[in-house]
């Protein structure tokens, strides 16, 4: 086991499209049905937004399931973001014990992992802790994950933070990758916000409506 010392401050601590990968673990019907700390529809909205953001910025993304013939295939809205990708189906509860998944990450050459999974306290916490021990900087997306109870979700989060992992939300992931509205990906990110951003989407649509009435705005 390597000693993991994640970079927590300064510019190197921030995610970029070129320094991270995204792992989406076990967003399957059986697992979704057990989520109790967040509304399932909201969690699905968030993980689809997360996946679309990764795709828009070219972040390598791995889809994986566990015993899909029993727990069900990956939920359709998420699979539809990457229709060409067949999720890696595992038997291991801990994704980081599956050689295919670890080798996929290793081939990217990237050392920052962003992970969302069902359930938080098990299928998220286990690979987060394991990958930290292998020297990776690990970030986990709380609102694109879910636990079997509020307590289970919160204790899973506490355990991962205590070990050195960094929590974030789906919206933060997009903002952190964009970081400058002058970058050409701004249009793609705005589309994702409009589709999945809830109250933020409503505000953005209103702003675009107001700007559309002003000559010279280009809206």
Automatic annotation (TrEMBL):
Transmembrane segments: none annotated. Residues 21-171 form the Isochorismatase-like domain. It comes from the Bacteria. Signal peptide: none annotated. It comes from Nannocystis radixulma. InterPro entries: Hydrolase_YcaC-like (IPR053152), Isochorismatase-like_dom (IPR000868), Isochorismatase-like_sf (IPR036380). Pfam families: Isochorismatase. The keyword Hydrolase applies. Keywords: Hydrolase. GO terms for molecular function: hydrolase activity. This is Hydrolase. The lineage of its organism: Bacteria, Pseudomonadati, Myxococcota, Polyangia, Nannocystales.
């Amino acid at each position: 086991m390597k000693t993991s010392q994640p970079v927590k401050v300064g510019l190197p601590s921030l995610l970029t499209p070129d320094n991270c990968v995204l792992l989406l673990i076990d967003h399957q019907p059986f697992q979704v049905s057990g989520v109790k700390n967040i509304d399932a529809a909201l969690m699905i909205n968030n993980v689809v937004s997360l996946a679309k953001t990764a795709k828009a910025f070219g972040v390598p993304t791995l889809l994986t399931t566990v015993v899909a013939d029993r727990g069900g295939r990956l939920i359709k809205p998420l699979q539809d973001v990457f229709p060409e990708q067949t999720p890696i189906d595992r038997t291991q509860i801990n994704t980081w014990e599956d050689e295919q998944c670890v080798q996929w990450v290793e081939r990217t050459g990237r050392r920052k992992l962003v992970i969302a999974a069902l359930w938080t306290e098990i299928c998220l916490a286990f690979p987060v802790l394991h990958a930290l021990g292998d020297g990776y900087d690990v970030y986990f997306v709380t609102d694109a994950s879910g636990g079997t109870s509020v307590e289970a979700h919160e204790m899973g989060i506490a355990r991962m933070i205590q070990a050195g992992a960094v929590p974030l939300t789906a919206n933060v992931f997009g903002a952190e990758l964009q970081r400058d509205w002058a970058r050409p990906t701004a249009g793609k990110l705005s589309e994702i916000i409009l589709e999945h951003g809830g109250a933020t989407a409503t505000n953005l649509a209103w702003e675009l409506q107001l700007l559309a009435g002003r000559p010279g705005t280009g809206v």
